[in-house]
Amino acid sequence: MEQYVMKGGTPLCGEVEISGAKNAALAILAASIMTDEPVIIDNLPDVRDINVLIEAMETIGVVIERLDLHKVKINAGCITSVLVDYDYIKKIRASYYLLGALLGKYRKANVALPGGCDIGARPIDLHIKGFRALKAVVDIENGMVVSSAEKLEGTHIYMDKVSVGATINVMMAAALAEGKTIIENAAREPHVVDVANFLNSMGAGIRGAGTDVIRITGVEKLHGTEYSIIPDQIEAGTFMFAAAVTGGDVTVKNVIPKHLEAISAKLIEVGCRVHEYDDAVRVIAGEKLTHTQVTTLPYPGFPTDMQPQMTVVLGLAEGTSTVTESIFENRFKYVNELVRMGGQVKVEGNIAIINGVSGYTGAQISAPDLRAGAALVLAGLSAEGITTVDDIKYIQRGYEHFEEKLRGIGASIEKVDSEKEARKFILQVS
Ligand code: UD1
């Protein structure tokens, strides 16, 4: 079983290139099947979730040609099935985007109910409610979402809760519905905007993405396009926090600084310096970190996907900090692992109360999910001694070449596949 093994204590310094946004790429890949013409997508991150979705798309007859590591050509002119089974959905929750895409194009889609990272109950009632508002018939049968529509009709939809997935899924189906759809209380995340831009480049009529009201004028058909995905806000934020937690100085390149404002603001609050350039951000760690309060919120608030990384930083900040998780109810599973590394954190309901310590100590720990896994790696890189992180399959779902990028800014970290390899690394670094 693959693990990361690392020796902490080195300030991370240098430059790191950020990859394409995983969460935008997942939706854009799914949306690419909405035309029979070829679509070229560039700046795809080379991560497990993307590669699994590509496989899922191939099983329904989509032809996908790899032009290079980050670029694919997609031809969905010969889809043979509108059924996506549980084998894929359990590996990658976002394959539910094929529901909106298939329903829009073929008026029919059968997709298994999703699994995904275990960070709390993750219903898809809002997706289903949106499809039904467009006049689709949607039922749950034997673990599948079975949907069909004689015709999809534009309508006025109010989202009861801000949901990235539901906003994107309904936006996709509505792009090929008859008439106008208005989505109110829409999610405003950068990847919602990226998916809208992608669909518009295929001929869709979507206005207002990035605000909480999205207006869609349905079109009959979409056409081929060539599109490059935006940089990953969360990967960028993770490397920014890597600088903060190790006392380093890191420039993250190929980013959109506007997408990082909530993250930068918190770094400045805890005593780091942040310099913004056109497409890069430099973070210089403060001599000491100070406590603060953070609450996760939909964009432009502080992202829930940066919550574990924030706790790891605040674990080393003087005084008492709090981190309130307002999006998912089960997102503090990493706290026990951080405590094993010497962190002083306790969780009460949806609030983590953190008493800063002067340093973490290396330990053998496990990644409970994608973002928490990355956060624990940051803790290990700042810790005294050796840390091994198990279950790195979660981290590989969403971070492209994580250990290589970390090594590029001075981290002493290796991916190992056996006890023997781990011992060899430890001998080398001690
Ligand atoms: C997406 C991101 C994920 C991120 C999350 C919040 C992808 C592939 N994943 O997940 O990394 O953490 O946004 O920024 O883009 N909800 C409902 N009913 C629904 C849908 C959602 O009650 O039908 C609730 C969820 O339980 C959660 C909240 O709405 O409490 C937000 O979830 P949502 O924005 O939909 O998250 P995802 O799209 O699943």
Your description of this structure?
The chain is of the alpha/beta class and 430 residues long. Helix 1 (22-31) runs parallel beside helix 4, helix 6 (164-175) runs parallel beside helix 7 (190-201) and helix 8 (233-246) runs parallel beside helix 12 (370-382). A 4-stranded mixed sheet has the order 22-23-1-24, sandwiched between helices. Strands 2-15-17-16 form a 4-stranded mixed sheet. Strands 4-5-3-14 form a 4-stranded mixed sheet, covered by helices on one side. The protein contains 15 helices and 24 strands. 33% of the residues lie in helices and 25% in strands. The mean pLDDT is 95. The longest helix has 14 residues, at 233-246. Strand 12 (205-207) and strand 13 form a beta hairpin. The protein has helices at 22-31, 48-59, 86-89, 97-106, 125-133, 164-175, 190-201, 233-246, 261-269, 307-314, 335-340, 370-382, 393-396, 402-408, 419-429; strands at residues 3-7, 13-17, 39-42, 63-68, 71-75, 83-84, 108-112, 137-141, 144-148, 156-158, 180-184, 205-207, 213-217, 225-228, 249-253, 273-276, 280-284, 293-295, 320-324, 344-348, 351-355, 364-366, 386-390, 412-416. Bound molecules: uridine-diphosphate-N-acetylglucosamine.
Can you summarize this structure?
With 430 residues, the protein is of the alpha/beta class.
What count of helical segments does DSSP give? 15
Q: What shape does the CA trace take? A: globular
Give the total of beta strands. 24
State the strand order across the main sheet.
Answer: 22-23-1-24
Low-pLDDT segments, ≥5 res:
none
Question: Which cofactors or ions or other ligands sit in this model?
Answer: uridine-diphosphate-N-acetylglucosamine
* Biggest sheet features: 4 strands, mixed
Cα gyration radius (Å): 22 Å
Gap between N and C termini, in Å? 23 Å
- Averaged pLDDT, please? 95
Structural class: alpha/beta
Residue share in helices? 25-40%
Strand content: 15-25%
